[in-house]
Structures are given as C-alpha cells and as structure tokens.
Amino acid sequence: MKKSLAIMTLSIMLSMGSSFAFADKSGYLLPDVVPAPKDNQTTPERVKLGKSLFFDPRLSESNWISCGTCHNPGLGWSDGLPTAIGNGMHSIPRATPTILNTGYNKFQMWDGRARTLEEQAVGPIQAGGEMNQDMGELLVELNAIEGYRQMFEIAYPGEGITEDTIGKALAAFQRTVVTTDSPFDLWIKGDEGAVSESAKQGFEVFEGKARCALCHSDFNFTDDGFHNLGLTEEVPDLGRYNVRRVSILRGAFKTPTLRDITLTAPYMHNGMYATLEEVIEHYDRGGDVKESLSPNMQPLNLTKQEKADLLAFLESLSSIKPLEFTFPNLPQ
Amino acid sequence: MKKLMMGLSVSTLLLATPFAMAAEHIVGQKDKAFVTGGSPVEALDIAVGDTIKFVNQDPYFHNIFSLSDLSTFDLGSFPEGDSRTVTFDEAGSLEIECAIHPEMYMEVTVK
Questions:
Q1: Torsion angle, alpha carbons of A245, A246, A251, A252, to 10
Q2: Partner residue opposite A223 with nearest CB, options B32, B76, B99
Q3: Is residue A79 classed exposed, middle or buried when 0-12, 13-18 and 19+ CB atoms within 10 A define those classes?
Q4: pLDDT tens across A29-56, in order?
Q5: CB of A245 within 8 Å of any CB in chain B?
Q6: Which of B32, B79, B99 sits opposite A249 (nearest CB)?
Q7: Interface test with B, best of A246, A255, A294, A296 (most B CBs within 10 A)
Q8: Residue B5 scores a pLDDT above 70
Q9: Cα B77 to Cα B79: distance, rounded to the nearest angstrom
C-alpha cells in the first residue's frame, strides 16, 4: 500500500514537473494583429505615409529633428541615451521609450497621458522641448509638398492634410513596429532547446520569487499599469500623478514592455541604469525611495544564481531576427 | 465628500445606519476589470444610501479612487482577498477607477 502510494505520488510529481515544461504558456505569445481603431484601420498606403512622416525632419520647427531622431530603429527604436534630447539640444528629463509594440499599449507615453497612438503621435511634434513645431505652420508646409498631397489623398481620401490625419498616419506606421519571435517565444511554442536551462529557471524566478510578473504580465510583458519603483532622483518626477492626483501615483510610471529589452538600454523612465544587472539589483533591494512605493515592491533576497537565471531569461526575450527596415525616400 | 462614508463595513451594520433599506453591492476586481456576478461591468446604477464593496480577486494590488465632482475619494491600495467599502449618499453620477490599472473604469449612477 505504502509502495503504491509512493509510486502514485512520484507519478504525480513527475507529471507536475513535466506539466510545467509543457504547460500552456500561450498567453505570452504576441497576437498576430495589432489592434487599430475603426476609423484608422491599417493599410499599406497609411503605413507608407506614416513612415515618411515619421522620418521627415520637416515635421520639426528646426527642420532638423524627426520622430526617428529619438526613436531610432538602429537603437531599438529608442536613442540609447539616459534621457532624451530635443529642440535646441534641450534635455528632456525622461528616457525615450521604445515604440516597439506600442500599438498593443492601452496607454501611451510614460505617464499615460495619451490614450491612443493617434493622440500621442501629434504631441511631441508640438512640444516645446521636443520638435517645437507650430501645427498650423506644419500643415502649410506639408500642403506645399506635392508628394505629400498625393500620399494623404491616397491614404485618407477626402480628409486632407490635417492634425488628425497626421496623427492617424503616424499611428498606422507605429502599429507596424513590432518585435518578432524571440528564443522565449520558440520555447513556449514547444522548442525545448530554444532557451538555456538557466533562462527556464529564470522564467520561474520571474513569475515567482522575483515577483516581476505582477506588473510585467501578459504577451507584451506589461500590465498597462503605473507603479512607483522607488528610484532615486535629484528632482523627483511626479509621473502619472500629474495626470491623476492620487497619492499612489506620485512618481509612478507605465510598465514598459520587456520584449527586445537587450536593445533598449539604458533602463527605467529616467535611464538611470545602464545594464540589466543594475536593474535586477534595484528590484532585489525592493527599491530605494519608499515614499509612494508600489506595494508590489519588496526586498527579494535573490541568490546569485537566481539573478543570473533571471538575466538569462530577460535576454531570451529579444527578437532573433528583428524586422528588416529601410529608410523611406521623402516626398518632394 | 463630507457626506461620504469610507471604510470597512458589513451589510448587517448597515441595517443600523440611517439608511436602513440601503443595499450593499459587491463589485469584484478580477483580471483587471470590475466584475459583478462574474461578468465585467462598466456601469452600475444604485440608490442613495447604497454601499459598494470592492473585493480584490487578483493576485496583485488594486486601488479604488474617484476624482468626480460628485465625490472625491481614494480608498488606497489593497492586496488579493482584501476589500474596501464606500457609501454613496448623494444623487448623481461619478467615475471610479483603479489608479494602478486605469483600464479598470466604472461609472456609477446614484439615484
């Protein structure tokens, strides 16, 4: 009796062990289609127009800065800087967020003040510290370019060149900027050899002891939520609190995606950490500043091996073959 | 705001309040959505004096707040299994959100 019970128990344990390896983790797979609003369904013509606008420095007051100046496809669609630099070499206190997979986000910008990509896209163009462009002047400039008149008419027949159609086109293009299969994706599709054993262990740490998945959840590794991570700042950035005056949001910022994380250093909303190792150490300490700290943050006491495994897992989240990209010839 | 009552309560206690006929509505916070009876809810009609009890059913913290003209409150953040209760004693409508997960949004109409 005892023997059969032991065999049964062992059988269950083995079953549980293998079920972890083969458990349904499909919730981590990116959907094939990036959602788009009814009045701005993604079409090749809209994407082509948006791509031209995205890389056209004539969208800025100086005719020198484009969206792509900061969101550089060669730098993980960010700029590799701790914090961004805008019009007149003006320093912006926040890091340039990658636009990879931003089409899946339910809130845009670090503080979520834009709800849609269409709304977000026209913000930096007009922001004084960024592209510093007067929208009225921009509409005049674009209307004077025959190539743009044609492209807008093809993409948005009868709608003209307006702030609305500029935002729509930029949004349509940004919805095509997505990550591709990573070793992690191949693993959850069933290729057991796609990632190292260390990365598999790191995934367990990620979902368990390290508590990362409380916020970095679902297919894009974000909860579309806002959290104060206890970062040290000389001048505290109030973040989401500027949008919603609720105490827990003081210093809170949007959870960013972790996909292609190795391409988007430095890290955090203020770019204060150059490496993922530094980021892991920050979380292991449970954050440094306790005021308005996210209740999900707490000291983790990770072992050296667990930190190494967690790093291996994070490194497995980057695209094996990032989308090929060619710069557009701009309309004249 | 002045008339707003916040804090933990149970329906039996409500019977002893001036709102003897007041009802308690249970609203869950599940999968980053407000739910009643297991289904997502974005709008809820209640009567003056009624109470809503928000129960966190997710394995992470949620929050409840409103910055509406009718009433402003922040019930704070609380973990799985915990709840927060708020009583509405003025007619009108207001929006309720989770500060941490703003996609959690619900309109309450107090009649």
A1: -110
A2: B32
A3: buried
A4: 999 999 999 999 999 999 999 999 999 9
A5: yes
A6: B99
A7: A246
A8: no
A9: 7
ipTM of the complex: 0.86
In one-letter notation, the amino acid at residue A170 is L
Model pLDDT for residues A81-95, shown as the tens digit of each residue: 999 999 999 999 999
* Chain B touched by A47 (CB under 8 Å): no
Rounded to whole angstroms, how far apart are CA atoms A211 and A222?
13
- Rounded to whole angstroms, the Cα distance separating A134 from A202 reads 48
Q: Read off the pLDDT band of B20 (50, 70, 90).
A: low
Q: Does B81 touch chain A (CB under 8 A)?
A: no
Residue type, B14: L
Chain A hits for B59, CB-CB cut-off 8 Å, are 214
- pTM score of the predicted model: 0.88
Q: CA-CA distance, A269 to A238, in Å (whole number)?
A: 11
B105 touches chain A (CB under 8 A): no
The conformational region for residue A63 under phi > 0 = left, psi -120 to 50 = alpha, else beta, is left
Parallel, antiparallel or unpaired: strands B62-67 and B72-78: antiparallel
